[in-house]
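Job type: complex structure
Entries:
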Amino acid sequence: MTVGPLIWIWLGLMVIGAPLFISMGFSCLLYLWANGEILLSIPQRLTASANSFPLLAAPFFMLTGMAMNTAGVTTRIYDFCECLAGRFRGGLAHVNVIGSVIFAGMSGSAVADAAGLGTIEIKAMTDEGYPLAFSAAVAAASATIGPIIPPSVPLLIYGVIADVSIGRLFAGGFLPGLLMAAALMVMIHFMAKKRGFGAHRPPTLPEFVTKSRKAFLSLMTPVILFGGMMIGVFTPTEAAFAAAGYALILGLFVYREIKWRELPKLFLDTVETNAVVLMLVMTASLFGWVLARAQVPQMLGAWILGTTRNPLIILFMINVFLLIVGCFMEALAALIILVPVFMPVIKAVGIDPVHFGLVIVLNLMIGTLTPPVGIVLFVVARVAKLPFEVVTRATAPFLVPLIVVLLLITVFPELVLFLPRVIFG
Amino acid sequence: MSTRAESGATSGPLAAFGRLTAALDLGTGIACVVLFAAILVVMICQVTSRYVFNSPLTWTEELARYLFIWACYLGAPVATRRGNHVTIVFILERVPRSLARIVGWGIQAVSIIFFLQLAVLGAILAVRSHSVEAITLPIPWSLIYLAVPVSGVLMILQTLEGGWTMLQGGGEEARA
């Protein structure tokens, strides 16, 4: 059996609705079996890819996000942002974006942002008379900032596969994430003008002070997360653990909105969410390993390098390819399978792996907003109780600013690499 | 630990199987919570020993990794029962119900073959690695690989019980 059938069986199973990790695992099983290889490598490879201390940061990021949503922190952040941006035209849409930026500093997943903050945002905007589809679209588009501004589960996984410093990757995400927010807000500004959306009155000083104070302790989470990591004291896993601990302490003792008896459910949800992601990581690594044994990265690399050696053209080619792939594939699985495939070429032409990490993750996050496989669209459609197609169409205009940012960071690596260099030298 | 509506029969082998998988799901759930709590305790030991007492413990990182592996393998059957594994239902939701039903059975069959292989291969690997010791802990790798067959068997049972739910929504949930 060659690689061709392997890929067709995998795609076929995926498209007809087999769980993604089974479609990857089963096609690898068939391939290895048909080629008479030792099948014991399957459980061995699966376990080996989970046997990683950095990956242990993932469940802590997830726990932080869930604890924040349970503890009413999300509402506090929202109120604070409303104070900051409510006064502008189309104010609540701007609030939505700024809220996502702040929430992105605590949670590493676009889905957590869409499901948690998105729910509050969509409700608030609808109560104010914004069209439901528009509110859903803003919530969906801004949720993609979550995994760009650190912490980030996709960047963490990229760092583990590509063997790149996770601290540097996280530092590299700040500027692109802020750029995404700015680009979305420019878009919102024009749409609000055209559609004549209103604004809130500016908050009074006492209001501002109260709401800032209420949000202050939650706003400290990113500080705890990055403080230790940036000065090089904590490993990313320890920093993630500290942030999760802080979020739990806030919820249990300070805000008292998480009850002790809710703790087991919170833990179980964390382990389950983590298992869903890790099953993808494990089977996708197995898949990548099979591709590597079949020399696919080498062949692809030779083909690309035979066409051009210009780093910029190669990045453009990869970007176009990924935008298409992102429509049809789940982001994490695409990341895990494709990073090892592209890595030899990236290294051969001297592209900084931190730069490439941000490009590929931002690209695949745009893919979560494109049909037919757009996970953020699905979540937001469910939260807003709108048909998938309606949310898809309403979100489409926001792809423009996001793709512009993708182009910017592709062409100007300094946008990504400046901060890591300043912080880590 | 989701509760599922009774699938018709209240007695007989089908109901007994339903009770068995529900009990297994509860047990798996409890094990997941205990594992995660254990990971938290190990991490507290690691952080305090390193930053408070300035004499880092050698075994915490390895133990945390092994607990993490077990948590991954045991969380998977919980997600299987809840129908929460990342699944692309775009096409399945747009074909006639009768066709979707047939495809659903096919997917269940493929899943069970994969889990069965996982269980058998994992068991062989666990037996063979009884003499491979962990680095800082006095335990054999068999204990770690044991998670593979346990997870495989649990996922087979939960797929048999509730594989159908993936067709009834909630399947496309994912964490990008």
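Summary: The mean pLDDT of chain A is 90. The radius of gyration of chain A is 21 Å.
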